[in-house]
Each structure stands twice: as structure tokens, then as C-alpha cells.
Amino acid sequence: MNESLIEKGLLTQKKCSHCGQDASKTNDYTIEGVLYCRECINRFILYFDEYSKRPDITIRFKELPPSNNKFMGKTNKWEYQKQKKYWADLIFCEVVKQRIPRKNIKKSVVTLVHYFPNKIKRDPDNFSGKLVLDGLAKAGVIEDDSFDNIKLNIEGEYDKKNPRFEILIKIKEAVNNEKFQSRIQLL
Fold first, then answer.
1. Which of 60, 130, 170, 178 lies in disulfide reach of 56, CB 3.0 to 4.6 Å?
2. Under CATH, domain 54-174 is a member of which superfamily?
């Protein structure tokens, strides 16, 4: 193992950060200062290759995010913060469950589809997706939720038997594998 990384405090362990196996051999790797064994690096590269070929990602929820009207003009900012944290955690859990790699989508088209249980008229601007986009960025799925990185579409549908919410992400630009592999350093 390269002792200079340990001396500099960049590596404080001699075990793979992913699987916990001994990684003190001379052919182990770091990604941005985090130690991994050769087997885990190979799995990451294979998984990244497969992931980058995925044309899009769909994340489904059995509940609908709240309307912006619930928070606008209200003095209780804590309810908004509570909902923001709830949706960020919910999105993160789905990202983990679907094994979506983090920080890989640079540019994308994000479509938010609300399947409402009734045909009451709703304004799209009341479902702007602020909680959802912040959650996607916090979970690390999208690099940033700015206009430079995403194009946002909002749709509303009717499904009395199965109301739900879906996030569709069409990848326009992902971090390419060469860029990912260039971050891997042989110890």
C-alpha cells in the first residue's frame, strides 16, 4: 500500500470500503481517496458500463407529493421542511432499492407524472416538483437541479384504482466510463 496516502491522512484504513476485505495489497485502488479492493473496482466498472447504457430510469411511489398550495402563504415553514425531508428520504430509499448509481447523470429530461385518484382540475404549477428535484439532487441521482442540467416536464393523469407518482429520467449525458476510470488510482 502506498504509505504516503496514509501519512497524508487520505487513507486511514487498510480494508476495502465496500466489502471490508483486507485491501493492504500493492494492487488495490482508491477513488477520490477511498480505498477499494481490485474485485470491487471491477464490479463497479462492469456495473457502471451497464448503467450508462440504460436509456432511462423510472422511480415509482404509491403516494403523491403535496401541492405547493399546501405551503404558499402559510407561516409554518416547519411543515414544508418536514415534507422536504420526507420526500428526500423517500427518493433516497427508492434509489438504493433500484441500485441507481449516484452522481452519474449530468444532463437529463425529468418528467414528473402524477396519477390522481379523481378528475378534479389541478394547475401544473402547483405541482412544480421542487421537493422531488431537491430529493433527486440530494440522493445524488442528478448532478444538479438547475436549468443547465435538466429539462422538466410535468404531467397529470387520472387513475382511480391506482393513484401514484412516477419520476421518469431520460439520460442525455452521463459521466462517461473513461472519466470514471480516470478517477481510479492504483496504489
1. 170
2. Holliday junction resolvase RusA (3.30.1330.70)
